[in-house]
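Summary of Year 1 activities. Much of the first year was spent building the evaluation harness for sequence design. The harness presents a backbone, in tokenized form, and records the residue chosen at every position. We chose the following record to illustrate the format because it has been used consistently in internal testing since the harness was completed.
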């Protein structure tokens, strides 16, 4: 098994359930508004693919209220957890996004909340973008939400601590020239004698990097927003890059093109 895959599977699997508990304590209000705006713009019943869906809550489950949704993730523990929420319109599969998946099947594809950038080489990330481009139909739409490197560097909280139901989470963050790093220490005296430790790193991809990766796979970047409210993107001030790309270079989508009705 190659190193990045092992890191995701073995490391994340060990803390998957606890990390899901932690993520539920995040301030989800901006993310829910973001999802609601997307829901408002998509035709009911559309086929939607979410790559890097994790445990599927709350984003994937929320989308399935309106669309036929398929979620894929590399973590067996996360998919096992997510499958308890499956319905006729919601399905989860254990799958490596670097490998092709259901060619020309989906109207839309999403990659939420920086669920990308974890692989070792640029080629592996290109392969993941290729999977996305291949999975959506001609003139289909791909939406990716990724951290903005410049903002993240300036606003990194290097250490924080949370206690949830008697479980202590210690989170340490740092970065170098090419990656952001996050180490999570979980202290759960009831379930584990020793702390659980998980470290992840995510690549410092810029907007230019994504534009290039998208174009190489036949995706045209159409619009970029700077946060979950779809504000204008500013390279220094925006916390996120919400990127909207079209799967057919020659044709712009009226729904997602320059005149996109987000504002």
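For this record, the design step produced the sequence shown next.
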């Amino acid at each position: 098994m190659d190193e990045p895959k092992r890191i995701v599977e073995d490391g994340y699997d060990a803390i998957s359930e606890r990390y899901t508990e932690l993520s539920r304590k995040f301030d989800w209000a901006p993310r829910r508004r973001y999802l609601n705006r997307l829901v408002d713009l998509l035709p009911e019943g559309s086929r939607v693919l979410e790559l890097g869906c994790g445990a599927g809550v709350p984003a994937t489950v929320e989308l399935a209220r309106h669309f036929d949704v398929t979620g894929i993730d590399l973590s067996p523990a996360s998919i096992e957890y997510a499958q308890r929420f499956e319905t006729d319109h919601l399905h989860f599969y254990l799958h490596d996004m670097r490998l092709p998946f259901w060619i020309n099947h989906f109207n839309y594809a999403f990659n939420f909340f920086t669920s990308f950038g974890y692989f070792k080489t640029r080629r592996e990330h290109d392969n993941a973008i290729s999977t996305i481009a291949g999975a959506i139909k001609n003139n289909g739409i791909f939406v990716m939400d990724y951290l903005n490197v410049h903002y993240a560097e300036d606003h990194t909280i290097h250490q924080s601590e949370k206690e949830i139901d008697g479980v202590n989470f210690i989170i340490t963050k740092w970065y170098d020239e090419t990656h952001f790093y996050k180490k999570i220490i979980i202290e759960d005296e009831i379930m584990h004698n020793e702390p659980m430790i998980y470290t992840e790193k995510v690549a410092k991809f810029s907007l230019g990097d994504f534009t290039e990766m998208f174009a190489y796979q036949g995706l045209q970047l159409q619009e970029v927003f700077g946060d979950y409210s779809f504000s204008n993107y500013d390279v220094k001030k925006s916390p996120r890059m919400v990127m909207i790309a079209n799967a057919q270079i020659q044709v712009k989508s009226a729904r997602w093109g320059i005149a996109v009705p987000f504002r």
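The chain has seven helices and eleven strands. Quantitative recovery figures across the full test set are reported in Table 2.
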